[in-house]
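Record format v2
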Amino acid sequence: GAGVSQSPSNKVTEKGKDVELRCDPISGHTALYWYRQSLGQGLEFLIYFQGNSAPDKSGLPSDRFSAERTGGSVSTLTIQRTQQEDSAVYLCASSLRQAPYEQYFGPGTRLTVT
Amino acid sequence: KQEVTQIPAALSVPEGENLVLNCSFTDSAIYNLQWFRQDPGKGLTSLLLIQSSQREQTSGRLNASLDKSSGRSTLYIAASQPGDSATYLCAVAGSNYQLIWGAGTKLIIKP
């Protein structure tokens, strides 16, 4: 079956612009996660959605970052007024139920802020 | 605070060798541990998931072990192939839902 998909695969943007990253989880998966992988660093948790519950935004690095999940499926991660330090690979994952069930990852979006 | 360490950071071996990658964690109160593979420019592929009640999991040439009491997991790769070249990451899930990640081991298998 179809896995987690993300778009775009690559995004180059100028400093100060807003960007939107999209994630389509595996059908039927109720939990969705966003992670960030910066060059030379490990993966960093950003935000977690579970069903209709309020998302856990504790990992978002600043108020320029926000995310939403519509209809319990597709999620969009928005970064406003991008900075060069936002350059990273943004990974989305989904799981059948809430963690700690196995998480399945998308291919990621490589964001470059110039 | 959970911390995950992977040793070595990089490993280069000739094709055909058996090898072991190590992962250690500081808090033994985990729900599960997952091993992932990451190829350059690509996402993460889950290789094996070991629940906290399990000691090991096997998939093909891969075998992962878990010793919660000592805070250690190993990923054993038998008869390595050039296609195994990738970065291998381990991640632990605790009482909350966040995965805590190691920095990875970059593996190169030389033909």
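The longest strand of chain B covers residues 44-51.
The interface with chain A takes residues 31-32, 34, 36, 41-46, 49, 89, 91, 93-94, 96-99, 101-104 of chain B (CB under 8 Å).
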